[in-house]
Amino acid sequence: MLETTDRPSWDEYFMSITSLVAQRATCLRRRVGAILVRDKHIIATGYNGAPRKVSHCLEVGCLREQQNIPSGERHELCRGLHAEQNAIIQAALHGVSVEGATLYCTNSPCSICSKMLINAGIQKIYYREGYADFLGGKMLEEAGVELVQF
Residue 50 and residue 145: Cα distance in Å, rounded? Predict the structure, then answer.
């Protein structure tokens, strides 16, 4: 019989799912997974990678590596979308509002994703590892979005 202590908390459960989602990532530098949750139900998932019908970095190489661009800088010089962006886009494609949802992510959001998450109405963000873009966290704090390192 399963012990109740063996059962993960909701936050542990959702954070573990982000690691599985990240395994689909096509970025050569970092695999990131994100899920949007409302009322203990997953409403969207996302991982980092190139847009539909566009070659992935796994196939054509990493432009950022080729140009020696440090992590957290010059986000526009990348073929890929971030996991958080893909989760928001997936919800939009399926007509699902993300307002009031919680984001679980393997990494803390960059400043671009933070702006999107704020305007999308995300209320709380759990993340495992930091990211070298400190403006994101500052904006989330200013907007009243709770940011929790798991």
Answer: 28
Backbone angles phi, psi at 110, to 5 degrees: -75, 175
Confirm whether 129 is a catalytic residue.
Answer: no
Give the separation between CA 99 and CA 25, rounded to whole angstroms.
25
Q: pTM above 0.85? A: yes
Chain centroid to CA 78:
16
Q: Which amino acid is at 86?
A: N
From 59, 76, 84, 141, active-site residue: 84
Place of tokens 């990348």: 78
In tens digits, the chain (150 residues) has pLDDT values of: 556 678 999 999 999 999 999 999 998 888 999 999 999 999 999 999 999 999 888 888 888 888 888 887 887 888 889 999 999 999 999 999 999 999 999 999 999 999 999 999 999 999 998 887 889 999 999 999 999 999
